[in-house]
Amino acid sequence: MGLRWAVLYVHVLAAMFWIGEMLFLALVAGPYSRTLPAEERAELFRSLGRRSRPYAWTAIGLLLVTGVANLLLMGIRPAELFAWSFYLTPLGTVLGLKLAAVAVLLVGVVGHDVVLVERSARLGERLRREGPSPALLAEIERARRWASWLGRMNLFLALVVSLLGTGLVVGA
Questions:
Q1: φ, ψ for residue 171, nearest 5 deg
Q2: Each residue of 85-106: pLDDT tens digit?
Q3: Cβ pair 160, 108 in contact under 8 A
Q4: Pair 168, 36: CB distance under 8 Å
Q5: SS3 letters for the chain?
Q6: Burial 36-47 (b: 16+ CB within 10 A, else e)
Q7: How far apart are CA 97 and CA 166, in angstroms?
Q8: Backbone phi, psi, residue 92, to 5°
Q9: Exposed, middle or buried, 135 (CB in 10 Å: 0-12/13-18/19+)?
Q10: pLDDT digit string (tens) for 29-83?
Q11: pLDDT of 107-153, one tens digit each?
Q12: What angle do CA 58, 63, 67 make, to 5 degrees?
């Protein structure tokens, strides 16, 4: 058990933590929240997000760092990543799919955790300041649906990335 094992182990642990957090939100918090009034549901997710987001982003950072380290420890040089012929190999094909999925996933995570969370916070502040109106409540519901949809898409992509990562380790 050398450095490659240790780096891969940290990579897998970070992925397990991050995917586990998303599964908890989708399978436990989400269904439970539907039993609550809208304001309590929003507060539940604000609170969960505030508490879990730093850990999730730490896991993402670890995944990025250990992902690069894993490539280097597998003997894949950065220059190979810019050679089209590399992606025609079985290993290159799987790695290319994984890197593409990671890029889309990162855009989705930023969209969810930065754009939609900030939008929801602004809408919640407007609701407290102005009180409920049909237009504002509809906008809040639209933002909630987008966040839910994007969260599910991010979970699906994270599972695809982990599947492709498994293919890299066991042999593409």
A1: 110, 115
A2: 999 999 999 999 999 999 999 9
A3: no
A4: no
A5: CCHHHHHHHHHHHHHHHHHHHHHHHHHHHHHHHCCCCHHHHHHHHHHHHHHHHHHHHHHHHHHHHHHHHHHHHCCCCHHHHHCHHHHHCHHHHHHHHHHHHHHHHHHHHHHHHHHHHHHHHHHHHHHHHHCCCHHHHHHHHHHHHHHHHHHHHHHHHHHHHHHHHHHHHHCC
A6: eeeeebbeebee
A7: 13
A8: -65, -35
A9: exposed
A10: 989 998 998 778 888 988 998 899 999 999 999 999 999 999 999 999 999 999 9
A11: 999 999 889 888 888 888 888 898 888 888 888 889 888 988 999 99
A12: 155
* Side chain identity, residue 60: I
CA neighbor of 116 nearest in space, from 136, 84, 83, 145: 145
136: left (phi over 0), alpha (psi -120 to 50) or beta: alpha
Determine the Cα–Cα distance for residues 130 and 124; give it in Å rounded to an integer: 10
- What pLDDT is recorded for position 145? 87
Structure tokens at 11: 């990579």
Amino acid code (one letter) for 105: L
Amino acid, res. 68: V
